[in-house]
Specification:
The chain is 41% helix and 24% strand. With 255 residues, the protein is α+β, with helices and mostly antiparallel strands. It has 3 domains: 4-44; 63-151, Endonuclease I-creI (Roll), CATH 3.10.28.10; 174-250, Roll (Endonuclease I-creI), CATH 3.10.28. The strands form 2 sheets. The chain has a 4-stranded antiparallel beta sheet with strand order 1-2-4-3. A 4-stranded antiparallel beta sheet has the order 5-6-8-7. Helix 8 (165-176) crosses helix 9. The longest helix is centred in the first third of the chain and has 14 residues, at 63-76.
């Protein structure tokens, strides 16, 4: 028999992404015992390490980092079951090393108890972290693709987004959006001149996620337009100069 503290320590190591074999070798506890504990919630004393699943649920300790991470998750993230725990994965293009670093930092700020790793794939990386509490922090998880199921924020999530709209917009743009420079030509006094202008785009198939994005734009006073592409994606465009300036204040370009 093992006491609660010993069980919590072993399970905390598993939550960090360690294999059952490595945890067993370090602690001297059999893999079968650790595996059996993973199906029991009581010994974990979840309320001591997660603000959401305690007797009095509270928002995350760093709500600004959470708002940014929520935007990343809704755009290019997923939560999946993995060896008795849950893995949060955020897909990031290799093109944006600054985004990868910001994503890692946000995960660390939201769940400092858990380690973060970067898994290289072709053309992109997955920034990942395992914890039994990701399902507490992202109740939107579920089977299937996000655009095929209902996505609604919990009241506590809505409150965080209302207080930190810039971070939420930044997360959505960094995952499924971009800031680009368009150009056009115009004849002025008989001479054709080239004009450049900046605009923001956000693309997604989920009507619920698009609404969350547009509602937040409305909240910060950004004007936008919606267009539909043939592959089922909807584009949200921000092109008016004043609104682009606001987006530069709230979001800024990827890097």
């Amino acid at each position: 028999m093992y006491d609660v503290a010993t069980r919590q320590h072993a399970l905390a190591l598993v939550d960090q992404g360690r294999s059952l074999n490595s945890v067993s070798k370090e602690t001297g506890i059999s893999r079968a015992a650790i595996r059996s504990w993973q199906t029991r919630i009581e010994p974990r004393a979840c309320g001591t390490s997660c603000s959401r699943c305690g007797p009095s649920p509270q928002p995350p300790d760093d709500p600004a980092a959470y708002a940014y991470l929520l935007g990343l998750y809704l755009g290019d993230g997923c939560v999946s079951r993995q060896r008795g725990t849950y893995a949060l994965r955020i897909a990031c293009s290799d093109t944006w090393p600054g985004l990868i670093a910001a994503c890692r930092e946000a995960i660390k700020q939201v769940r400092p108890e858990n380690s973060v790793c970067v898994v290289q794939n072709k053309g992109c990386v997955h920034v990942a972290s395992t914890s039994r509490h990701w399902v507490c922090l992202f109740p939107q998880h579920g089977p299937g693709r996000k655009h095929e199921r209902r996505i609604v924020l919990e009241p506590w999530q809505r409150q965080i987004v209302d207080v930190h709209p810039s971070e939420f917009l930044r997360g959505l743009i960094h995952s499924d959006g971009c800031r680009i420079t368009n150009w056009t030509t115009r004849v002025v006094a008989g001479e054709r001149k080239r004009y450049e202008y900046v605009r923001y785009f956000f693309s997604n198939k989920s009507g619920d996620i698009l609404k969350l994005f547009c509602d937040t734009l409305d909240k910060v006073g950004v004007e936008w337009k919606s267009t539909r592409r043939c592959n089922g994606l909807h584009n949200i465009s921000v092109a008016r100069r004043a609104s682009v300036a606001l987006m530069d204040t709230h979001v800024g370009p990827k890097h």
